[in-house]
Amino acid sequence: MFTHLTAALIHGWPLIGPAPDRVHVTVPTIEQTVHRAGVILHAPGAGALHLAAARLDGVPVGDRATTASLVARTEPVHVAAVAIDAAVRDGSLTAAQLADALPAGPGRGSRRARTVLAALDARHETAGESYTAIRLVQIGVGQVVPQHEFRHDGFTDRVDFWLPDIRVVVEFDGKQKYTDPAMLAGRHPGDVVWTEKRREDRLRRRREVRTVVRVTWWHLERLDRFQALFRSHDLHVGGETRPGGHIRNA
Questions:
Q1: Quick check: pTM over 0.90?
Q2: Which of 25, 117, 199, 235 is a Cys-bridge partner for 230, taking CB atoms 3.0 to 4.6 Å apart?
Q3: CA–CA separation, 115 vs 110, rounded Å?
Q4: CATH for 141-249, among 2.60.40, 3.40.960, 1.10.443, 3.30.2450?
């Protein structure tokens, strides 16, 4: 049965980074994991043999909850969070279902899985927002409100993330917003930039907003870049922390 990251790709979840060079398969008849050229054969673990309707060349594929559990415990947290959050976003999986699929008690990858769980939210609209969410968890931000709306001056400005504890707006600023014809909807890229500037000016004028942090894919690719971006806004953060940690204001 296809499992782990291979099953995630079959389910259509997005992958951060290069495609894996080996296929993951769980085999009921073996007792320990075997690494071979082009394939990793996994011994079955607790809950590892649930089947989904999906098949690839007649081979069954692990169901979404089991796949998410394995990915959350074995992949880097940003890879796992972006992949699993896509299933949460489209409604085919919930964070509660993932939590139920995780082995009870401490174990290999359990802390990593809890970090991933803390970042999942169906309100994230894109992979870039999912990526930003897991980085916010990693640097120890407390309360994070996705898709928060600010109403003022006859406008309703919806932001990707509102961090009320530190009064910061975080926006994922993807290039697609300025280049994708579907997102431009007939507008000139310069008009989109001007609209974004006016919107950010309105947000900065609000008394409760300390600053607006714009995050690009480049910042997300490395945690130290993400931390440096926050420090450039006079928001001093530490290294990776457990979910529920905090960010210290300057």
A1: no
A2: 235
A3: 9
A4: 3.40.960
**Residue 86 in this model has a pLDDT that exceeds 60:** yes
Place of tokens 């999912």: 130
Can you tell me whether residue 208 is helix, strand or coil? coil
Q: Where are the domains of the chain?
A: 4-122, 141-249
Is residue 40 within 8 A of residue 75, CB to CB? The reply is: no
Sign of CA dihedral 100, 244, 208, 159: negative
Residue ranges with strand state E in 45-195: 51-56, 59-62, 145-152, 155-163, 168-172
Whose CA is closest to 63, among 103, 113, 8, 130?
8
Crossing angle for the helix pair 127-138 and 110-119, to the nearest 10 degrees: 120
Give pLDDT tens digits for 199-244.
Answer: 887 888 899 999 999 999 999 999 999 999 999 999 876 444 434 3
For CA atoms 183, 187, 189, 195, give the dihedral sign.
negative
Give the model confidence (pLDDT) of 107-154 as tens digits. Answer: 788 999 999 999 999 999 999 999 999 999 999 998 999 999 999 778
What is the amino acid identity at position 76?
P
Long-range interactions of 237-242: CB distance < 8 A, separation 24+: 237/139, 237/140, 238/139, 238/140, 239/139, 240/138, 240/139, 240/140, 241/138, 241/139, 241/140, 242/111, 242/114, 242/115, 242/140
Determine the distance from the C-alpha atom of residue 49 to the mean position of all C-alpha atoms in its chain, rounded to a whole number: 26
